[in-house]
What we know:
Elements (H helix, E strand, L loop, with lengths): L1 H33 L6 E5 L3 E4 L4 E10 L6 E10 L4 E3 L1 H6 L3 E2 L4 E11 L7 E12 L6 E12 L3 H27 L1
Parallel strand pairs: 2-9
Antiparallel strand pairs: 1-3, 3-7, 4-6, 4-8, 5-7, 8-9
Amino acid sequence: MLENRTxxxxxxxxxxxxxxxxxxxxxxxxATAAKADPFPLSLDLTQPTQSxxxxxxxxxxxxxxxxxxxxxxxxxxxxxxxxxGPVLDTTDFFNNAPFSLDPLESSGVFDLFTVFIPDGTSLGxxxxxxxxxxGGPADSTDVAGFADFEVDVTPExxxxxxxxxxxxxxxxxxxxxxxxxxxx
Length: 184
């Protein structure tokens, strides 16, 4: 009889521990599922790498998708950074982006931002990142999505023309000297 009571207490204690453990796991899973995706927007730039020379303006277009299956995401603001040199302008975002995207909705392609390459910018690749700020509430300023991009500054066409003209002049001078040497 004493053994039965001891066994009953152990079983009751084990059941309580099991119920408590399962309840704790259920709460943790619910909290994890309720946690929103930190970046619910996917930004797909149509040409993430573009090239140009001094004086050129490059336009970057995007298709934005709300990857959330349950939440509307508001596109409240935009911010872009780029290495020193070219100048990034976010005006296109404010003129073209939708105010919000419903769950799993896509914006369609629109012009997102422009990059102006000033004359005299050093040749090379300039890395940048573009972020859309927003999220759940209409006044949120969290990063809702981002995209990396690159601007390759190449020699200006006028530089190529100047180089070609110089090479032609040198070729003509060398040819004249060669012909003059043969006639003498």
